[in-house]
From TrEMBL, chains A, B, C, D:
It comes from the Bacteria. This is ThuA domain-containing protein. InterPro entries: Class_I_gatase-like (IPR029062), ThuA-like (IPR029010), Trehalose_catabolism_ThuA_prok (IPR009381). It comes from Microbacterium insulae. Residues 2-221 form the ThuA-like domain.
Length: 244, 244, 244, 244
């Protein structure tokens, strides 16, 4: 199992918010990689950022990735369309994808969804309760219901995404809003998990249960030893009844 | 459009809770019929209860019904299995069905779902906020988001039903719980809408927006002039390629 | 109800295949408009092609359209991305969309699906049988099962689209292949119906049952008098519990 | 992994059809167990029939089962309702279930689906082609598309089941009919796979690719080490916001 944790890394580079280095001394990607390496000791966990060569998303890197984790927020438009297309092809060909929090507005997620991916939001550090609504789903295994996040940005409905395969989690916020916070999708041969908790302002990615969810997501989204590649266009000369 | 509002009517007969006659002088079924008759002036609205002949669910009555509305709570087990089976056949044959609140545990709903339909609950008169998560769905047309219910019984996840066709509404409660409060299902040729607001203790069925949701549900669930009947077992002697 | 039948119109302009003018003297768009005007006498049916001003897809034209029908084949790449984006926004805002046959590879459909939309194909004029698998769906109303198309291009699985809302039709071909030939999707507030029968080589759009399916699709996809517009990004300062 | 292959076993006991003992000397259950034991060497494979104590479905037997495989045809009504209910509870609590062929009309499958499960059929020994329509699904892993079954009973649409989670396979028959032949469902915490190939008249369960599909189904449906049990009814006295 090879996991690539990709983070735009711009908040960290600019030290905005000021406390980001306090919570995430090795960046949000470093914190997520740390959560995963403790839970998936046999996995090979790598990290990459927008500042890396080829935006951290080179073809040979994606070729070696079973599950890609995506965190982005203020630099979505700096990921070139051709790079987005490259990653999308890998997802359609079977690479798992986990999109976190503000990644909902990334070019990649919007290209895979086909919708605006708009939502409501309010950054007031309020309590989020993440409730399990699909307790038999592998991503929910061992996760408390509710999972309590003391301080979080509110994401609220309506979240403009296509009908998901499964609604795994639904959150409520102190303000009363609700959000489908854990959603699965299949696109081509690829499995996609969107999980909304996590923000540059709060130490959500230091919380053990959050690590459990993301690790479950990695296990679920991995294609294992399935062959990679998109559905081909095929033009057989003969039908099966004629050819036999 | 012919709508039959069925209510077990046992709370009303026993005058339990004591204020049920205050809120619902003509019964919960009467209140719902009133909401509908104002919104669907061309519809023929009837009511029936468990105390009626054939439990209010005679074959010739169901034959004349486009959409059945179901409210039950403490007398689920008094509806005989053969009557449940009869109603189920009508739903599979195309009759629309709207199941309200504690009807989630009715024999009819459980037979159509195949699951326990269990959930969490707490009767503390707390505020429910009903958020729209499928704004393009006909049932959400004109409904405010959130729809605020000042005092309600809490219903919470996990709600053990099969994956719905659409999650139209999700509620949060003052206590922090969430619930998929508006769900659609298709079974056979029948459309089913489950809507959780409403209780014998609170005047939810006097609230105009609740009437709007139920009326939208009736319009959505109605089979119109589609022929009624379940999918038949057919045993053709010849395949299409041989027979032409 | 205002329907816009859009056809790239390139086969007709080039008179390729040679018999296209025999089957479709007013173009494929003209034939489809003719089918619809007989079935939906109160609808306003317009046509447009790639050769028209603004590629036949001007903003004020889309503003006046309830349901857009899309036929394209050899000129997909000539529809500029900004025009595709404009149409996509209208679909997400509630405009119905019916994509026919080779439109599966259009930029518009691929943008809405997020997948390759690849499939198998063979142009051998073989018989297609279109079977209904969702008899209670409004699009299947009054359609024979199977609907027999004497000569058709084969489209076969795997068809790389996301899980549809409903599989309304599945076809078999004389060669033995199968294809999910009638699929519905929701994207944003818009309803999308993909229907595979129809080709520039065969008089499929002269067949009355095909007209019935497309007319049913138009009725189903129309937003009616629902307000148009995509889900907005909203940033409320206060939660509901604080604000009341 | 503990697999229980249950077969009513009545065709075998009556030696109807006459050749059943030729194809299936140890019964259909024996043939399926043989297919599985070769593919899942670490699994514990057991068999049971209707003639066994407690109809082969004792509580302590189900307790020790991760995945139940069900084959029935002419004795559906001889499985008592209380036994059906017991098995259903185990499925809702997480036990995997694979229903084969004519098991579509079993009391168990109908109870879990809530529909008639009716379909078309014709026993003419015609060729079935099983096409993969969800190539990324674990059940499709390594399965040829099409999987060719030389002689089979035809099962055709409309198949009256609820919308499945995934349509993994669609079959065509020599006669031109189509059938959704591989379907997945989730009910409670249990995963269900319906797979239509297989009949008492034809040696389908001797075909290696059929064994591959069923073995994939077992691996997919198994709950692994997830805790077993249905969703409980819970009545918390306090909401989360009050209790903290």
């Amino acid at each position: 199992m090879r996991v690539l944790v990709w983070n735009e890394g711009v908040h960290e580079a600019r030290q905005q918010p000021a406390n980001i280095g306090y919570y995430y001394p090795s960046g949000i990607h470093g914190a997520i990689a740390d959560l995963l390496s403790r839970r998936l000791p046999d996995a090979k966990i790598s990290t990459a950022t927008l500042a890396d060569d080829q935006f951290g998303l080179a073809e040979n890197s994606l070729d070696q990735t079973d599950v890609l984790i995506w965190w982005g927020h203020i630099a979505h438009e700096e990921v070139p369309h051709e790079v987005v297309h490259r990653v999308q092809e890998h997802v359609l060909g079977g690479m798992g994808l986990i999109v976190l929090h503000s990644g909902h507005h990334s070019r990649l997620f919007r290209a895979l969804m086909g919708t605006t991916c708009n939502l409501q939001w309010r950054n007031a550090g309020e309590r989020e309760l993440v409730w399990t609504v699909a307790p038999g789903h592998p991503i929910a295994r061992g996760i408390p219901s509710p999972l309590v996040i003391p301080h979080q940005e509110m994401y609220g409905e309506h979240f403009d995404v296509p009908r998901p395969d499964d609604v795994v989690f639904i959150s409520s916020f102190a303000g009363g809003e609700v959000f489908r916070s854990g959603l699965t999708f299949t696109r081509g041969n690829g499995r996609i998990f969107y999980f909304s908790p996590g923000d540059q302002d709060y130490p959500v990615y230091l919380q053990p249960e959050i690590g459990d969810v993301i690790a479950n997501g990695v296990l679920w989204a991995s294609p294992g030893d399935s062959p990679r590649g998109v559905t081909p266009v095929v033009n057989p000369n003969q039908g099966w009844f004629e050819s036999s």
